[in-house]
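User: Here's a chain of 125 residues. Predict its fold as tokens.
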Amino acid sequence: MTWSALANGSKGVFWFLYQSERVGAAMMDGLVDRDFKARPAWDEVGRLTKEIAPLIQTLAGLKNPREVKQDDPLLMVQQLTDSHGEDWLVGVDLDLTKTRRVKLGAVELDIAGGGGRLIPAHPRQ
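Assistant: Prediction complete.
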């Protein structure tokens, strides 16, 4: 969902629940359990923030998301434009279970299940 939000032009991501809590009869799982011990989501958020950190400056300037039609229903590709008029592609693997080999523009690359990639739409030679 993080990469889907970024592909659609979101300027930030907020993970809603830090600590696991009981709400009525339901238990809402957070990044840490009730004893503040890391849950699996903690590591996932850490991995994502490290992956996205080098892209922050570029992502912050992207606007005007436009869908790039795909034959694969589990691949989302959006084209966005930066403040210099350069176009970027964000590819998102909507299948959480496996890495897929995809073609974004002229570039072939792997996107991990549930992950995404940001590349220039027209890479400089």
